[in-house]
Design a protein that fits this description.
The structure is a single chain. The chain is mainly alpha-helical. The chain has helices spanning 19-29, 42-55, 89-104, 112-120, 125-132, 138-150, 155-165; strands at residues 63-66, 74-75, 79-82. The structure holds zinc ion. Zinc ion (ZN) binds at residues 94, 98, 136.
Length: 182
């Protein structure tokens, strides 16, 4: 039997098993070179977050805040915080994808108790990803790619670079907006 990807750490949290791989991948294949990054205002970043949520048919996007003083950006269903260096499209979409992946979990037509049981006993990595939201799991990656595609990145090259980088993604249809045009 293969080892489940999601295991509890000693502190009782689920390991964000491919975080560093995702960071390395996006630096190599997704983010534009520093001199080509168009730094936006918080209001412009808010528009991108709003559109990303809208694209997935979700209402109530998180508010974008000035994350100056923080080293890194962060995003959840409640808020997106962006230090100045991070105010370009690809990072904003990354942070939007965190909140969106948390909310898409609700689209699955499996009772939460079943998902929780299969996630905790190691029989379903997919449910573990959805139930425990480790951060940069497979659902997150798929949503991020979908948003990048929507913003003009080439889906095929994104997916092949993920493959090359050993980053896993989920290809279930609930990771796509309803009525996506291919
Ligand atoms: Zn992240």
């Amino acid at each position: 039997m293969r080892k489940p990807q999601y295991r509890l750490t000693r502190s009782g949290r689920y390991r964000d098993f491919q975080r560093q791989k995702v960071y390395d991948w996006e630096r190599a294949h997704v983010f534009p070179e520093k001199e080509f990054r168009e730094i936006m205002s918080i209001a412009e970043c808010q528009v991108i977050v709003n559109k990303a949520y809208e694209y997935f048919g979700l209402i109530g996007p998180p508010e974008v805040h000035d994350g100056r003083g923080r080293r890194s950006a962060c995003g959840s269903i409640y808020a997106v915080r962006l230090p100045k260096w991070a105010r370009f499209t690809e990072v904003v979409l990354h942070e939007a994808a965190h909140g969106i992946s948390s909310r898409l979990c609700m689209r699955i037509k499996v009772p939460i108790e079943t998902m929780f049981r299969m996630a905790t006993n190691g029989t379903s990595d997919e449910y573990a990803d959805l139930v425990f939201q480790p951060g940069h799991g497979e659902v997150f990656v798929r949503i991020f790619v979908e948003l990048l595609r929507h913003y003009g990145h080439n889906e095929f090259s994104l997916l092949s670079s993920l493959e090359e980088s050993g980053v896993k993604w989920n290809d279930q249809s609930y990771c796509e907006p309803e009525g996506r045009s291919t």
